[in-house]
Specification:
about 15% strand, alpha/beta, binds calcium ion, Ribo_hydro-like (chains A, B, C, D), Purine nucleosidase (chains A, B, C, D), about 325 residues, hydrolase (chains A, B, C, D), 13 helices, I/U_nuclsd_hydro_CS (chains A, B, C, D), 10 strands, homotetramer
Amino acid sequence: MIEKKRVIIDTDTAGDDTIAILTALHYFQVEGITITGGNVQFDQQVENALYTIEVAGKGGQVPVYKGYERPLMGLGEKEHRTVEDVHGKDGMGDSFFDKAIQRPAEGHAVDFLIETVHKYPGDIHLIAIAPLTNIAMAIKKDPTIVPKIPHLYIMGGTNNALGNITPSAEYNFWVDPEAAKIVLHSAIPITMVGWEMCTEYSIMDDTDHEAIAALATKGSKFFTDINQVVMKFNKSVHKLNGTTHPDTLLAAVAAKEEIMTKSNLYHVDIELTGELTRGYSLVDINNRLERKKNVRVCEGIDRDAFEAMLFDVLRSIQ
Amino acid sequence: MIEKKRVIIDTDTAGDDTIAILTALHYFQVEGITITGGNVQFDQQVENALYTIEVAGKGGQVPVYKGYERPLMGLGEKEHRTVEDVHGKDGMGDSFFDKAIQRPAEGHAVDFLIETVHKYPGDIHLIAIAPLTNIAMAIKKDPTIVPKIPHLYIMGGTNNALGNITPSAEYNFWVDPEAAKIVLHSAIPITMVGWEMCTEYSIMDDTDHEAIAALATKGSKFFTDINQVVMKFNKSVHKLNGTTHPDTLLAAVAAKEEIMTKSNLYHVDIELTGELTRGYSLVDINNRLERKKNVRVCEGIDRDAFEAMLFDVLRSIQ
Amino acid sequence: MIEKKRVIIDTDTAGDDTIAILTALHYFQVEGITITGGNVQFDQQVENALYTIEVAGKGGQVPVYKGYERPLMGLGEKEHRTVEDVHGKDGMGDSFFDKAIQRPAEGHAVDFLIETVHKYPGDIHLIAIAPLTNIAMAIKKDPTIVPKIPHLYIMGGTNNALGNITPSAEYNFWVDPEAAKIVLHSAIPITMVGWEMCTEYSIMDDTDHEAIAALATKGSKFFTDINQVVMKFNKSVHKLNGTTHPDTLLAAVAAKEEIMTKSNLYHVDIELTGELTRGYSLVDINNRLERKKNVRVCEGIDRDAFEAMLFDVLRSIQ
Amino acid sequence: MIEKKRVIIDTDTAGDDTIAILTALHYFQVEGITITGGNVQFDQQVENALYTIEVAGKGGQVPVYKGYERPLMGLGEKEHRTVEDVHGKDGMGDSFFDKAIQRPAEGHAVDFLIETVHKYPGDIHLIAIAPLTNIAMAIKKDPTIVPKIPHLYIMGGTNNALGNITPSAEYNFWVDPEAAKIVLHSAIPITMVGWEMCTEYSIMDDTDHEAIAALATKGSKFFTDINQVVMKFNKSVHKLNGTTHPDTLLAAVAAKEEIMTKSNLYHVDIELTGELTRGYSLVDINNRLERKKNVRVCEGIDRDAFEAMLFDVLRSIQ
Ligand SMILES: [Ca+2]
Ligand SMILES: [Ca+2]
Ligand SMILES: [Ca+2]
Ligand SMILES: [Ca+2]
């Protein structure tokens, strides 16, 4: 039997984060889940992560650590907007699930990250499906972890395409652009799956949802529940006919890189100071700036393979 | 006989600007050509415009006015980069044509613009295929021209796509973003054709060039000459297999709006202060910012119709 | 008899601008007055300038040209704040004087500036007591005037001191920082008198006002009238016990440079992009940036000499 | 006997930091010293702090914790400039002292800060004489420490005066403006002593240095040694005739607030995005912005009292 790779998932658990967690729990040895400020109220996110572990039947087996509740430069109420309009008040499609039995682990997410990387040098892959605050802060607190992290998979940014939270920016990078900049400049090997990959390859329309419902598993039921609000939001705001699964797509790419049909190494950087472009991700496809190529950018996905993975995950959760 | 619409062309004449001028001379009553700083040395641009009029057989019939030689905030040598690498040293594919007989008109481009708009209120359409310095300065000097301009066609910016001079910006908007901002906020009705329209619909590959050469007119010979450098540049820098015709595409759209197969009214704005994004054009497709929709953005072109127009123009120049 | 120097005064005529105009009319051959957007409604400023000429007994002898009504990047209502709170609704201490007989000259201020500089090359000194929009636009429209301008005196900015309109910026530079930047980088020889010179050396307290009133001339009466509002404003906002005379101080320095007891040539630049510091004037006293020294900055005034000049001016207007 | 107040000193130990540490050790119960990136190479700073404790005769009694070696947004080599030109290659006036016996404590400065504040809630005063990276990071990692910190004394910024590292910024705020912003917005009660207080009240000229040398103590000898380089630097760069003691002045103010002859509560904020003004500290003396008054700004010092304190400290170190 092949041993599963060790990962830590950093998440602002709401909506698609949960399916990404289920996917990661399916394909990886998940050492822990760290929570960072983002989608909805922080403590709700923590509960969502704990509940999702329970859904996967792994309650008590995967520790959940609380991390930074707000972005680096989130001063007072400024610059941190939660998105209950996208994911529902509870971030779970207004499902208002019961509280999980498992409680958060003691200690700060950033210390857990640092210690675990040092404990398994070269073995801990990071799956980042949230603003990059926790990961940036780990790098800043202990830069010696950098060479010990083999790969970091990031859902975030756009590759010369329309953003989601503003026209110029994707939500995760927009919430904490300083953190994104720190991480992108860290020299950790990175794969980035941008928002446009999600709108092009991850959408599940009504037919897909019916097929998923037909699985009639605990996993498929959970999928249906948590996607109730985002379906409506996508139709009205993004003019997208279905639910979007950026975090699950990222987790799937991390699990099976071969579902990426196209990717290239580019220089990627983050705008901090623009009046209209804070959080914009520059992807220098034609190498006009002649700067260091620091990120492998996903540019194509085998949609069928991705869908098959998603179905496998949901089918397996009985 | 239908009377032709009156236009003024504002251009930094080099490369494709010349074919756009030929196109405009073919379809419009061109009241004058104004030159703004951009592609190559200013005086060379003036000569290129004069020569192009001569090629069209209209020497002495269309006045050429010198305007602003540098962008608004072009201080010293800062922030104005000419692009002889794209268009050749003379901006004409290194053709080094003889000087035209016609000389520039007396007076400043901006005063010609203001006077002509007042002379024919509601009749002067503007075709802008250069940094927007002249047009912005006309608006600032005399804001009363604004309601008298029925439409302004702009080649510039990108619609959520890769730029050409930097990853985040298209050349015309990047050279003078302050001017672009002034123009976009002016309340003049605007149609914008971005760089991504050009790369998607205007490219002429080797086969197209052969077909054009086969026309064996003075027009087709001129087309071949001035495109010698840009063909190589596009292959090596933009990974594009052919020559690009952004300005001609814009002139064609102005002449026959029906070749636009798709367009929408969006809020468009320009980033001035970004460290990575100066000159970036924000196009708010999903109306996330809920701001005034100020620009009709071209999103699709009937390529065959465009090509037919180009061939008509080149064929007609004997 | 010594011939007076030729000057053009650029002004947003309200409050102390009027006394500066009287001062300039006293000491110089004033070729014209150009009006730029600033203190109060533009047309009111034009009337204020015309009225002031009449007060000086020179009605019809000094042309007044209308220039730019708004700053370069003043888009819609953004970024141009008038200050009727400082100068009264009419900019004249709520005096609501009758309209002058003289009317504005035909033509745009910027063209008058350009033509006059070319007419008297090397002879036209500029006195700038307003946002620098007109002067910047003249330089941009015709850069060949630069070497023909012997000196430009500017009231604006601060020399490492508290601003007046914001903590970091003085009003004239803050209204149109882009214009200020264009002018400071133009290579015209410049003397700058900052706001802190005004608060340190130009304040007229109650005793001074009584002495001025005692002159009992038309000039002294006018001075008393137009200073009615600013006296209260200074006490409540700037904690200054008296009226401030930045523009008159500048005009006096231009007329008699020897009243400057201290001045040095420094590198001066303007911040455009700061979130808190737009319009801030950097004065590099210790040459830390090692950039071109472009401005002679006034650092000390002979207060008695200045006061004597003011009294001479007001006394002479019978 | 009155119990001494508990403090933690955060320092980038070089030059005057050492005398500030001696001052704090004299007047306070120093719970620990935390080191942050700044003046010179990080490990050198750690050694300088350890050595200084030894000079004070307290080797092994006061723990020294290593903190953040670089500012928050210090990416690669960008934006962190050490200043060996000011303080000598070793930050100790090129004295190259022997290594102290005491070694740094285990654990990260930020965790020591958090734990100690929680251990003595309401009792730990912070003395910050370095870039504010460590303190900002403590606040971000555990915002619950904020209400438990009674006061934070900061040497940093300027109050509408010339900076030292750039014309617009003081070194500590310039090195890590994001950290400064986080700290200033934290709601911790703050007293700020800016660079202009230092140049106005803390300078020790040749006569002062002779008087200090005449003390002929270990303390006075140390003072003489570490000030060898800065004396020359100040004369050539800042045109100051003597050594500057910003950090010692801050420590003295913290120890005896009554040496402040003038201070006021103002709104203070930090510029992050300016092209010329990154790290500029806005001090809104006239409350023009009508924002929250968050910092007590020192505006006057009893120089004699300060000097007496310094002499007491140096005399006491035998
Ligand atoms: Ca997420
Ligand atoms: Ca062009
Ligand atoms: Ca004025
Ligand atoms: Ca220090």
